[in-house]
Amino acid sequence: MHASPSPVPRTAGALLALSLTTVLAFGSAPAPSWAALPAAPDSTAPARPGSSAGPADAVAAQFGLSPSAARDLLRAQEEAARADAEAAEAAGPAYAGSVFDSSTLRLTVLVDTPSVAEEVRRTGARVEVVPRSADELDGVVAGLDAAGPRAGVVGWYPDPSEGAVVVETVGGASSEAAALVEDAGVDPAAVRVREGAEQAVPYAEVVGGRLFRTGGGVCTIGFAATASGEPGFLTAGHCGTAGAPVESIPAGASGTFQHSQFPGSDGAFVRVGPGWTLTNLVDDQAGGFVEVTGSQPAPIGSTVCTSNPYNGWRCGRILGRNHTVSYPQGTVHGLTRTDVCSGPGGSGAPFVAGSQAQGVTSGGSGSCVSGGTTYFQDVNPLLAMWGLELVTS
């Protein structure tokens, strides 16, 4: 496979009156084998939903769908997310993940035990049997995480349809990948090595726009949230360390990073003071807003959108979850991978599936001219870790 351009972080529209943008570059890699979904007709053209827009308008514009087809897609995704949760409960430890096909609007639930398949089918789900459960694949990921990064190995992630964990390498690093697998003590049969990635490097860019300032740069606000009733917002962890000050742009309101993790994960909670107003809105960069009503995770294959003042409102699909990205400054675990395009300045930007918050932008590769890959840190683990409540009304 050919090498992809180095990933860079993305900025998105603010859900408060301002937004923030710090850039992080991550190494990119080939798309997983199960991610052979139809590409957007023009993935480089920003969707412009307009002032009265909702999520369906953005999806329709991005993928060349009629408004009714876009609404059908989002309704099907919401139903698939609920069906996935029910099927996962029915499957128990045999659950191996799920994939949503945005062309057929069908969800496929994966299990690793044939005898469980029939029970899961009773929930109405389409079922396929794969070699390993989600817990087994997550165990392999955890083993690789514990063994640490290796030169030339830029990341690893579970591929549920293949029933294996994919280890991504820069060309010629297959021996290093084999050593990582051996040191991790995981089953080599549960690992696939794929070359073609580029080593990721983080970088920051100071830009203008609706931003908030932190340290020597700016980052995008993700989602408004509260900590024990105290107002704040989620953004990327690499935007600032705990205790670092934040300032609105234009200046006038201040805040502080109360929680921040990077590397390891890439999330942060900024506690804000007077002068900030919390909303459940995401700026669509076209004069309107999208309301956030919850944070139900969307299955692999679902359509997601992000927003920043540089690239506008952009949509694509979820390609995989629990992605580990390794780069010189450290390793980040648990990222979700998408084929959404973005560019420098997007760190912390919100990702939404319909009206459901999905995560905050961590980094990516490519551009909205050539297309690319963007990773986000899932929002629910951040909320749970710090006891936060997402603002949804």
From TrEMBL:
GO terms for MF: peptidase activity
CDD domains: alphaLP-like
Membrane-traversing stretches: none
Biological process annotations from GO: proteolysis
Stated family: Belongs to the peptidase S1 family.
Organism (species): Streptomonospora nanhaiensis
Signal peptide (UniProt feature, chain positions): 1-35
Domain named Peptidase S1A alpha-lytic prodomain: residues: 132-187
Protein's name in the database: Alpha-lytic protease prodomain-containing protein
Entry keyword annotation includes Protease: yes
Keywords: Disulfide bond, Hydrolase, Protease, Serine protease, Signal, Zymogen
InterPro entries (UniProt xref): Alpha-lytic_protease_prodomain (IPR037295), Pept_S1_alpha_lytic (IPR004236), Pept_S1A_streptogrisin (IPR001316), Peptidase_S1_PA (IPR009003), Peptidase_S1_PA_chymotrypsin (IPR043504), Streptogrisin_prodomain (IPR035070)
Transcription recorded as keyword: no
One protein family per Pfam: Pro_Al_protease
